[in-house]
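job 3f2a | input accepted
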Amino acid sequence: MTSADLPAEAASCLQRLGKSDIVIGVPSYNNGRTIAHVVRAAHAGLSKYYGQYTSVIINSDGGSTDDTREKVLGTAVEDSHLLMLRTPLSPVHRLSLPYHGIPGKGSAFRLVFRMAEALNAKACAVIDSDLRSITPEWIDLLLRPVLHASYDFVAPYYHRHKYDGTITNSIVYPLTRSLYGQRVRQPIGGDFGLSGRLVRRYLERDDWETDVARFGIDIWLTTIALAEGYRVCQSFLGAKLHDAKDPGADLTAMLNQVTGSVFQLLPEYRHVWQSIAGSRPVDLFGFRYDVGLEPVAVNVQRMIAAFLQGCENLEEVWNLALGEDQLRAWSELGKRHQGNGAVFHVEDELWVRTIHDFACAWREHRIERGHILRSLTPLYLARVASFVLDTVEDDGPRVEDKIENLCLCFERLKPELVAAWSGRRIARGKVTDEARAPEPQAHVEVKQ
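job 3f2a | predicted structure (448 res):
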């Protein structure tokens, strides 16, 4: 990668910098309210822990119309010396650059990664711009495993409110864990540490113009690291306090893009995930401690109403996506709850088989993929509503136990997904062959 391959403003900055050992990327879009704190924490962390390295903080902005970029460049860090044990040997540079391409977090990351490669960075970290709980120690915890222990991918591990991260808890964590056999608790956490060689691998890929360019980037990063055998660990960061959303609000775009990215990588890495059974823990660094969490408001009735509306309007699409047993179970749940008198509950087995059905339908019905993914939203909301109703009185550990049970259910039923993906169906104890078009062969190099 040369400066000629970068946008003009980025190329100009690159010529000034020459090289940098560490690159911190902060993607943004109208985050003027929170980004100054993120930049101060990143700057202090670099100065406190990595003063002997050259480093740069890059804000990759998606066209903010507020004062986000001005906050990045103008944030005062004069008081950061109060945190230092010694005077930094190398200054921390700050850049705010507009990215080009499909609007979204993935395109912002791509610019950061291209800059990191051009600067020959040894390590790169990316952090969300809406964080209110980030501290200078986060920077150390994301970078130290890469710089001093030869890890390639550092995922965040933090405490979150039981209703924050429902896409993670209900789909992405248990599905990714069962597929690739490693327990990365926050695979779409948003804050990651990366080695230079893994950054280069990401840039070699040709799927940057897909949903990866939007919300799908986090699970894309995690899946490639897991599936291709890079060294993966986690760092405990404490609490994640950010601009959390009501899970019943419109998260359709995020759900579609994240789930679509998981499905998109299934054919490429099928020879990896089809041979894995069970899961194992992933190395965890950092001191674990209890933290206070901000509550997340949820509107259960709105979620149930969205599901019931889906029962009325999406039967045709669900017929494409769901197996007969799952279709019948969802239909019966909708009918039972029309009068609002029945207990609203979605069994783990039904939910796991539903996600498996959608994965296979996404593969089989290419033209209808968009409709299929969008039709998952009411079912996801039903599952979240059931989860909320089941955990109203539960504390954090008990909620985590229920998420663990869901993960174990995904692992237990994984042979059904493997069979279906291979052109067979497991139904009522019998395995039947089905005609299926062959998939293109993909070579996956496993890293040692």
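job 3f2a | The longest helix spans residues 396-421.
job 3f2a | closed
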